[in-house]
């Protein structure tokens, strides 16, 4: 086991997946983690996948409340799954989720939904950066 550290710094919706989906996957994930940023509860998306909220999650940093804020989408299209897109995390400083994973290649998928989120920030000025 080693620890995959993901450093994230951005001002928008972030969701993380270490996963591969599809009926005949060319890659079978040994670690499969779905995180819904900014959510304090677990939820299921319309496609049936189960997402863990990152509030109080074992993957989240202890000082999460000090360096980031949970926000909610002000608008969500009718066909858009509430999980995971209705919540997001605005990160103000270097931020790390920590995932214990097995050795080997991993896929990291970030989910974004372009809308305004509570907090009154200007999305035109948002950005993100990821280091693995
Ligand atoms: C969410 O699910 C995880 C397991 O996937 C569990 O450890 C955690 O306690 C659950 N959180 C809530 C708020 O129910
Ligand atoms: C969060 O900030 C408060 C106030 O500055 C500080 O007392 C507290 O220790 C911080 N918490 C963590 C986990 O860093
Ligand atoms: C948002 O930021 C852009 C770029 O800095 C600026 O042009 C625009 O006026 C800002 N919008 C608001 C509502 O502040």
UniProtKB/TrEMBL annotation:
Q: What domain of life does the native source organism fall in?
A: Eukaryota
What is a GO molecular function of this protein? transmembrane receptor protein tyrosine kinase activity
Signal peptide per UniProt: 1-19
Q: Which residues form a coiled coil?
A: none
Write the record's keywords in alphabetical order, separated by commas: Signal
InterPro entries in alphabetical order: ANXUR1/2-like (IPR045272)
**UniProt protein name:** DH200=94 genomic scaffold, scaffold_4234
Q: What is the lineage of its organism?
A: Eukaryota, Viridiplantae, Streptophyta, Embryophyta, Tracheophyta
